[in-house]
Write a structure and sequence with these properties.
Number of helices: 9
Largest sheet: 3 strands, parallel
Structural class: alpha/beta
CATH topology: TIM Barrel
Helix content: 40-55%
CATH superfamily: Aldolase class I
Shape: globular
Number of strands: 6
Radius of gyration: 17 Å
Length: about 180
C-alpha cells in the first residue's frame, strides 16, 4: 500500500508523511511504500525508520534527463526553494501542491475572494498540458512536492537512484535495514 503525505506534489491529503507512515505500517500487514517528501537518501532512511519497506518518489524524477516534461518544468523544479510550493484547491476539497507562479497566485486570490468552482476551473483548464508540454511558466500547473528545494540540477535517472540508495549502505547495520 502506498501512503502519501501532504508534502507530495499534485493531489494531496492532510497528514504529513512523518505522521502517516507509522500509523499505516501499524495498521496493515502488507508492505507500506512511503511517498511525499522523499528527496534524497535522508528521506529514504526516515521512511524506513518509520516502518516503510520502500519509497515512491516523484518530484526528483521530474528533473531528470529522461523525463519527458518540458525543459521549463525541469528548470522550475531546479530553481525552487523550500518555500516555492503552494496548495491550491483546498476550498473545493481537491487540494493540489504546485510550484508558485502567476496561475497559482491568481487561483489562490480568486479562491480566497469567493470565486465559483466554474470560474476556478476556467482559470486552470489545460494548465497541466501548458506545464508539461508547452512549458508555460505563467499559466502552467507545475505539480511538485515540497522537496523541490533539494533538487539542484538535472540528472539522469541512474544518478538519482544512486543518490537515493548508495549512501544508505553506510547506515544499514546501524539501523538494521
Amino acid at each position: 500500500v502506498v501512503a502519501e503525505g501532504t508534502e507530495a506534489g499534485g493531489h494531496i491529503g492532510e497528514l504529513t508523511t512523518m505522521a502517516l507512515i507509522p500509523q499505516v505500517a501499524d495498521a496493515v500487514s502488507i508492505p507500506v511504500i512511503a511517498a511525499g517528501g522523499i528527496g534524497d537518501f535522508r528521506g529514504v532512511l526516515a521512511a524506513f525508520a518509520l516502518g516503510a519497506k520502500g519509497v515512491q518518489a516523484g518530484t526528483i524524477f521530474l528533473a531528470t534527463k529522461e523525463c519527458p516534461v518540458h525543459d521549463n518544468y525541469k528548470q522550475m523544479v531546479v530553481d525552487a526553494k523550500d518555500t516555492s510550493t503552494v496548495v491550491t484547491g483546498r476550498n473545493s476539497g481537491a487540494p493540489v501542491r504546485v510550484l508558485k507562479n502567476l496561475m497559482a497566485t491568481e487561483y489562490l486570490q480568486m479562491s480566497n475572494t469567493g470565486a465559483s468552482r466554474d470560474e476556478l476551473e476556467k482559470l486552470t483548464l489545460g494548465s497541466l498540458r501548458k506545464a508539461v508540454l508547452e512549458g508555460d511558466v505563467d499559466r502552467g500547473s507545475f505539480m511538485a512536492g515540497q522537496i523541490s528545494g533539494l533538487v539542484k540540477e538535472v540528472k539522469t535517472v541512474k544518478q538519482v537512484i544512486e543518490d537515493l540508495f548508495n549512501p544508505i549502505e553506510a547506515y544499514k547495520d546501524t539501523l538494521g535495514i
